[in-house]
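DM from R.C. (forwarded with permission)

"hey, sorry to bug you on a friday — could you get me a structure for this? deadline for the figure draft is monday and I only need the backbone to look sensible"
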Amino acid sequence: MSKKIDGVIEAVRYKNGQITMARIYEKRGPTFSDRIMVDRKVLLERVQKGLQYVTGSREELLAGTFITGKSILLVKNNDREFLATQPNATNDELEGVLVF
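My reply, with the result:
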């Protein structure tokens, strides 16, 4: 059985080791939204609230079908919080996500 996901992160923009902007799709009932641009603060707040995001990309011509990758983790290190796919991250780092 697959786990429930609340959103898919398709691409990110980094500056100084932190995500500044992310291109995501949000789960809305049985379907997904169009592309949404969110900043790091919004994405961090959503992950802190317990929403489950994964890396991935939309399959061409298949609307709400995604190729999903790793789960996004909230990593705490030296009183700082990072969004990462590895539990020992020292900065924001989403493996396999496109950079725009």
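R.C.: lifesaver. The first strand starts at residue 7 and ends at 15.
me: no worries. Strands lie at 7-15, 18-28, 31-32, 36-39, 53-58, 66-71, 73-77, 80-84, 98-99.
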